[in-house]
Each structure stands twice: as structure tokens, then as C-alpha cells.
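Exam prep: given the inputs below (a chain plus zinc ion), describe the expected output before reading on.
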Amino acid sequence: MAYQLGVDLGTTYTAAAVGRDGRAEAVTLGASNPVMPSVVLLRADGEVLVGEVAVRRGLAEPTRVAREFKRRLGDPTPLVLGGTPYGAESLMSHLLREVVQLATEREGEGPDRVVLTHLHWDHTANLELFPGAELLAPVAELDFWSGPLASHPHFASHARAEDLAEIDRARAQGRLTPLAADADVAPGIRSITVGGHAVGQSVLEVQTATGAVILASDAFHFYEEYELRRPFAICADLVGHDPQVMERFARSASDPAGLTVEVGA
Ligand SMILES: [Zn+2]
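Solution:
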């Protein structure tokens, strides 16, 4: 029977929960703890250890253990484990792989739906872990990354061709569901497109016993982005950022309200 899997790949700890019939339950990722340390160890024979077992083994092999590597996502300089260079994203993939495996063992089947809040590479990597799953993605993102602006230097480095190809494969196999700007994705879970960080950046609104919770994805990273009105460096649009825009550019004939200007004309 279908279930939802929510995963939080944290800087120090990783947590996961499974939802069925509108009820969510934590997945126990440690021996007795629901969370597991976000720690990966590469053994000399190539075997990769994850979580508590990596922490224990790391006491004896400190040069082979990696911690807090999430902070290094996007950094082209690799981490070195026992002499082997490792990208932070591939260490993150070991964490995710472990969580998906534990959830699959517990539930007896893999997750059957994956929601992509936007198509930046750090949100689309590792889709091969869900070979038969339905992918749900905001239509504004799908349109943008298959359109002419995707190759613009300001945007191109934020998505990977191999991930977009994986999404295209899902489309060809009938496993891709474009999400409207406001769409229900499961009982109690709604996708809302907010834009900003990416053209179709979406957040998930999850109804819980204590009220609605927003899974913000990259719409916000830090409180100060909201409190100081200081957007994250990677953004696709800044509505009303500079009032002079409205004076320097011609009003769009297609907007009878006169609130739109043509900057690319
Ligand atoms: Zn992003």
C-alpha cells in the first residue's frame, strides 16, 4: 500500500518519516534513535559505512570519516577520505541511499512518488534510487528547464544534464506528473509554487495535528532572508527589487493593469 517518505538530510543528523493514511511516523535510522548521524566512512576495501557504525569505526580510522559535509555541497574542492577524493554530493547520496533502503525494508516496498520542489541539481540527484516511482514537479520548472533560458550562464550551472535526462526518461515512461501552481500531491500535502529562488520554486504545505507546516525547500534558507529582505544569492526573479525598473522600461501592452514592463524587448 502506498506511503509517503519524508527525508531530512541534515548537517549533523539525518531523519526520516513515513506517512500512511494521513498519519506520520518516524523511521528508526539508528540502533535505538530515530535519527542517525550524518557521517560516512570509506573503508580501505571500498566499503562505505553510514551513520552510527561510521561514527564507531571513525574512532579507529579518523582519516576515513566525513562529517558535516552538507556544508560543502557545491564546493568543487573534494573532501579526501583515506586518500580518495570525494564530492560532498556523493557523500550525501550515501546517506539518502541508506535511508531509502531502511524505509524500503520497513515498508516492504520502495517509495512510489517523488516530489521535486524545483530542478536544481541538489534536488534532482539520485533519482535513480527510485526507478519506478512517479515524479511530480512544478510545471513552471519543467517548462523553464526545457526552454531557451535554461542555457543562460546565470542559470545553467544550477541543473545537471543527466538529471534532466532522467526526468525526460520518466516523462517518456509516463511517470512524470507536472504540478499546477497550487496542487494536492497526497492527502494533507499541497504543493504551492512561490518562485523567487527558481522560476517554479515550490514549497509543500503539510497538514499536521498541530497545524500546517511548510517544507520550504530553497524558498528560504535562513530567517534573515525573510527578516532582512535579503534574498539568497541564487534567485530567478526579484519582483519590485528596484523601483527604477518601472521607470526605465516600457510598460507591457499585454498587461492592462500597467504593472508589467518589458525588460527583454
Ligand atoms: Zn535550489
